[in-house]
Amino acid sequence: MNIVTEFVISSPSLPLVSIPDTLEVDEIECVHALCLQSDVRTFTVRIDPDDNVSPENLAALDEIMEATLLGDTNDGTVYQLTVELEESISEAFESEHIDATQLESTTITDNEWREKKLFRDYESFNDFRKSCENHDISLELVSITSDPSVSDGIAEGGLTDRQRDALTLALSRGYYESPRKVTAQELAEEFDISQPAMSSLLRRGERELLSSSLGSQGKLNSLSV
Q1: Diameter of the chain by CA atoms?
Q2: Where are the beta strands (DSSP E) in the chain?
Q3: Cis upstream peptide for 179 (omega within 30°)
């Protein structure tokens, strides 16, 4: 089942994170990225014109090989930036590690990227998360939901907000990893409920997700006959 994730990845080696810090910009918005070579990317970014950033300012940064002013829009000044990636970032960003589609522009601040991606399934997201970890990129999961194209039934009779919050917490803390990185007791303490209540909440949420993914209760019953 497709899943929509919103997350923050952090590393001083991420491309473009030097811009907010060095040029005193609150944030920049990356609207497109193109792979030219394994270690070279071209990014199309928007920057607030009030930040008074010039192509010369951008080109002076060590990571930027070329900076081109494309023009102004209502949403900001648009630049095309060609960036040489560090080896660890290039390896982490290899297409074999990312089975996902970008849903919104990436917001870039000092040392951080905030992204919203559609992954084919949880396993694909987990592969991406592990690739980040293996290359010293921290990942904080903000939210995870099923693909909107299949989530209508869930909204009517599936996950409650509390079940979704519990599952999101468990997933972000590594409860579903093998071996587990956190216990149900530790999750319960963070959720401020008892361990049995936490386990029950997770089981009910897991059942709702499985039911919505595999079909109606009637279909599940017929499969078990």
Answers
A1: 70
A2: 3-10, 28-37, 40-47, 64-73, 76-84, 100-102, 106-109, 112-119, 138-146
A3: yes
Closest to 105 (Cα-Cα) out of 32, 49, 51: 32
Q: Which residue has the tokens 């709702």?
A: 208
Phi, psi of 59 (to 5 degrees): -65, -20
| 90: its two tokens | 């290039």
Global pTM reads 0.64
Q: Over the stretch 156-183, which tens digit does the pLDDT of each residue have?
A: 346 777 888 888 888 888 888 888 889 9
Q: Which residue has the tokens 């930027």?
A: 64
- Please state, in angstroms and rounded to a whole number, the distance separating the CA atoms of residues 44 and 154: 36
- Give CA angle at 60 (54, 65), nearest 5°: 100
